[in-house]
Structures are given as C-alpha cells and as structure tokens.
C-alpha cells in the first residue's frame, strides 16, 4: 500500500480542458483528456489526502469514488471554483488546460454563415491567468504546482520555455511536458521534467500518468519538509 504521506492534507486539483462558448452550440476547446489531473487526484487520495477535483470536460471513465468533484465549463468558472477551494488548500495542482482566450462576446443565437465566402473573424479576449493569481494569493506553507505543456522541437527549447514560465507564474513546482498529436494529451503515459520555482530541474519522470503524478507528489512532500 502507498505511504500515507499526504494524510489529512487538503489537495485541490484542476483537470481537463475548458470550453469557451461562441454561440449556443459551439465552443473553442482543446485536446486535454483530464487523465493527468485525475491521476494526480487518485494518487493524492491513495496517499491520504482530502481531494477536490475541479473538472473541466474529462474523458469518460475517469470518475473516482472518494473524490469531491466540482464540474466547470469555462476558464472563468474554473477560476471561481479553484480560487474558492484553494483558500483552504495545502496543495494546489493546476493540471487543467485552461483557455488563454475566450470569445469577446457569446452570440445569443447560432452564428449563421453568410454564404459569400468572405470568412469569419472572431474577436478573442485574454483570460486571466489563474495559476499566477493563485501564487500571488499563496498562504504560508501552501504548495502550488503548475504545468507547462509545450510543442517545442527539442528538449533544450522545451526547458527554456519551462524556465520562462516558472519565472512568470511563480509556482513552487512546474511540470513541463511535450504535447502534440502523438504525446501528452489523451495518452495514458507522460514524460515530464519537474522544475523548481527558480527554473532548476528537481526531477524527471516517465511512465504512466499515475507514476508521473506520484513522482511529482514526492517533490511536493519534500518541499513541505
Ligand atoms: O501559459 P500556459 O497556459 O502554458 O500555462 C500553463 C499553466 O498555467 C497550467 O498550470 C494551467 O493550468 C495554468 N493556466 C491558468 N490560467 C490560464 C492559463 C493557464 O491557470 N488562463
């Protein structure tokens, strides 16, 4: 049985991909399956934590008994949900793929094509960065874990993007992975590099998403001391 080294800790995890509505039937979304976030939730539960999962469109089959789930659709809803439960959390893991932009307005009725072949321009506005807001509001002793999913062509470029993100978002740990058509999103396995807040490498992990989650939680436990 796993070591119960997160016994009674409140762990909040966001998972899945947000959907930003365009009109009553359409949205802008992403390929996140929610598998890595749910693997974190299951791993934390097995290690004794009290787990709250803020879930944005998980693939089917990821339901887990013993985990409190708050379902959300958009980045704004995810922000509200995470920020309300993060206040009392010991650990926050932002594994969700949050939309960076949302449509400036949501059409009340279905957008029609005009049939003139002229195309359609969408006006998007930037969503607030939830992870950066969480780290600004971090309470003493709270550990905040962020993700950086990138399509970098080489490991060095991936790490460079990760280091820049670590500096910008000020998470305690940043889990960096490559995504694209073949890796990361949707897959059952993952390969990650874990960076500390200063951008230095603290761990590397490859294997099932559960194994990756446990490796990152080992670093969370180490940081808590
Ligand atoms: O900047 P980027 O989207 O790559 O950052 C990824 C990390 O930031 C993830 O942990 C994701 O959950 C979080 N994020 C966020 N709010 C956003 C966009 C991303 O918290 N609006």
Automatic annotation (TrEMBL):
Binds 1 FMN per subunit. Catalyzes two steps in the biosynthesis of coenzyme A. In the first step cysteine is conjugated to 4'-phosphopantothenate to form 4-phosphopantothenoylcysteine, in the latter compound is decarboxylated to form 4'-phosphopantotheine. This is Coenzyme A biosynthesis bifunctional protein CoaBC. Pathway: Cofactor biosynthesis; coenzyme A biosynthesis; CoA from (R)-pantothenate: step 2/5; Cofactor biosynthesis; coenzyme A biosynthesis; CoA from (R)-pantothenate: step 3/5. Residues 11-225 are annotated as: Phosphopantothenate--cysteine ligase. Keywords: Decarboxylase, Flavoprotein, FMN, Ligase, Lyase, Magnesium, Metal-binding, Multifunctional enzyme. It catalyses: N-[(R)-4-phosphopantothenoyl]-L-cysteine + H(+) = (R)-4'-phosphopantetheine + CO2; (R)-4'-phosphopantothenate + L-cysteine + CTP = N-[(R)-4-phosphopantothenoyl]-L-cysteine + CMP + diphosphate + H(+). Its cofactor is FMN; Mg(2+). CTP binds at residues 100, 110, 128-131, 147, 165, 169. Residues 7-222 form the DNA/pantothenate metabolism flavoprotein C-terminal domain. It comes from the Bacteria. In the N-terminal section; belongs to the HFCD (homo-oligomeric flavin containing Cys decarboxylase) superfamily. Its EC number is 4.1.1.36, 6.3.2.5. One of its GO terms (molecular function) is ligase activity. Signal peptide: none annotated. The chain holds residues 197 to 421 of 421 of the full protein. The keyword Cell inner membrane does not apply.
